[in-house]
Every structure is written in C-alpha cells, then in structure tokens.
C-alpha cells in the first residue's frame, strides 16, 4: 500500500541543500501499521510529509496503492492518503466550528451525503452532537485530536499518516486516542504509517518499527523484539536505554 524506494529528501538546492533523508526504502502492505522512531531531526516526520505530498523528494520513488506518485497528486490520490498532525490546536482552523472543519473536505471533493458523513465521522471518533458547533478553543486537547481524526476519516482514506498524534496530550488521553486509532484501523482496514519519539506509543499500535538516525533507516524490527531488547543496531540499543522502562502494554 505504501512503497518508498531509495527516497532522498533535501531542503534547499545546489550547494546549500541539506539532505534530510538518505536513500530511504520501506514497504508497508495493506492493512499493516508501521512506526518510525528516532531522535528529533532524524528525518522521520520528513518521510511522512513526503508520503503525504506536502514536500517533494529529490530522488527515488514513492508509490501509493501500487501507483507511483510525486508531489503533484490527483484528487483521488489525495483522498486516498490523509494525515493527522501532532498539534490538533495548530492543525484546526481557530475561526471555524467543528461542523465547518468537517464540511470543508466534503465540499472540496464534492462528496454526496455531506450531513450523514459529518454525523458518522463524529460518532466514529466518540464525539456527540453537542461538539458539532463548538470552536477548537472550546474543546479539550483530546477532543480536538478526535476532530482532526474525523476530518481525515470523512474522505474514507485507505492510508492514514500519523505524525506524533498523541505527544501533545496527557498520558490518560493518549491511551484513549491510541485505542481509538486501533479500533478504526480494524474496522476500516486502514494502512497506518506513524511517527513518534515514544517507543511505548509506537509499540501499542504498530507491528513493525523502523529506526531512523541522521536521515537514514538503520534498522527495521518488531515491537516484540524491541520489548525483549532483541535488536541489532547500536543506535537502537541507545534508543531503548533512553526509553528505560519501555513496555509494549
């Protein structure tokens, strides 16, 4: 469902170009959840943005649902792949109600049954009618992230990209959002690519984990292997030590 083949991503051009991601290769089959971990600046969020089509890649190929894509996506390709950002307050328009936020993608993609889609999306993420006409500042952090997830789901995507979706939330709310994402993945058959600096968060949702360092994918392992410290790369071992107390549960 997601394929990256020797993808290199740079910021800037010519001699001033900064290579953020080097020769990145990863395959995510349909229905699987894969996580990317690494320290800040390792390139994991840059990979996610390239998959979403928000930034161009300098070299290599990106394929979604078996079709090669570049930054200029068709309407259908953008509908297929949706992204949930780290800060729900920053990703939601402050002067729009939840109803307006959810109605916008329906209008852009000229979908039918707009009213039914909005009601269904809110129900799926655990929000009621009382939240529909509120503004983002009138919602809690967890509720705002539920709206962001609903906005992504309203287009019925096959791929969901998650950029640290729980890092701005309290621990108790983090668990609620992760359980929500796990349920939605099962019910909708979603393919997930998730970025986080927290191994426990990644392991809660993802079967396979890619470890990034200095823009390179240094190891691909599993949540079970990480929990047992059965890893091969020195950087991954350092990452495990920095996440002392890591527990998949």
Description of the molecule:
By secondary structure, this protein is of the alpha/beta class. It has one domain (2-242): Rossmann fold (3-Layer(aba) Sandwich). Helix content is 37%, strand content 25%. The chain has helices at residues 44-52, 75-80, 88-91, 98-108, 114-124, 141-153, 171-188, 199-205, 223-227, 234-242; strands at residues 2-11, 18-28, 33-37, 59-64, 67-69, 81-84, 159-163, 191-195, 208-213, 216-222. The chain has a six-stranded mixed β-sheet with strand order 6-7-8-3-9-10, with helices on both faces. Helix 4 (98-108) crosses helix 5, helix 5 packs across helix 6 and helix 6 (141-153) packs parallel to helix 7 (171-188). The radius of gyration is 18 Å and the shape is globular. It starts with a strand and ends in a 7-residue tail after the last helix. The mean pLDDT is 92.
Topology:
Elements: E1 2-11, E2 18-28, E3 33-37, H1 44-52, E4 59-64, E5 67-69, H2 75-80, E6 81-84, H3 88-91, H4 98-108, H5 114-124, H6 141-153, E7 159-163, H7 171-188, E8 191-195, H8 199-205, E9 208-213, E10 216-222, H9 223-227, H10 234-242
Parallel strand pairs: 3-8, 3-9, 6-7, 7-8
Antiparallel strand pairs: 1-2, 1-4, 4-5, 9-10
Helix pairs in contact: 4-5, 5-6, 6-7
């Amino acid at each position: 469902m997601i394929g990256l083949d020797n993808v290199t991503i740079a910021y800037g051009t010519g001699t001033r170009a900064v290579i953020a991601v080097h020769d990145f290769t990863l395959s995510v089959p349909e229905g699987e959840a894969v996580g990317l971990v690494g320290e800040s600046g390792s390139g994991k969020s840059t990979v996610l943005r390239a998959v979403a089509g928000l930034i161009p890649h300098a070299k290599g190929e990106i394929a979604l649902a078996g079709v090669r894509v570049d930054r200029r996506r068709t309407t259908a390709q953008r509908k297929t792949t949706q992204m949930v950002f780290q800060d729900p307050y920053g990703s939601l328009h402050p002067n729009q109600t939840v109803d307006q936020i959810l109605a916008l993608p329906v209008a852009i993609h000229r979908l039918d049954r707009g009213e039914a889609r909005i009601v269904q999306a809110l129900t799926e993420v655990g929000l009621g009618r009382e939240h529909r006409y509120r503004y983002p500042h009138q919602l809690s952090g967890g509720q705002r992230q539920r709206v962001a997830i609903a906005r992504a789901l309203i287009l019925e995507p096959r791929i969901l990209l998650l950029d640290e979706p729980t890092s701005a939330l309290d621990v108790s709310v983090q668990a609620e959002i992760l359980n929500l994402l796990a349920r939605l993945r099962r019910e909708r058959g979603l393919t997930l690519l998730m970025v986080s600096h927290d191994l426990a968060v990644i392991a809660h949702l993802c079967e396979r984990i890619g470890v990034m360092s200095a823009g390179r994918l240094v190891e691909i392992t599993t949540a079970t292997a990480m929990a047992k410290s059965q890893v091969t790369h020195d950087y991954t071992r350092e990452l495990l030590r920095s996440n002392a107390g890591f527990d998949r549960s």
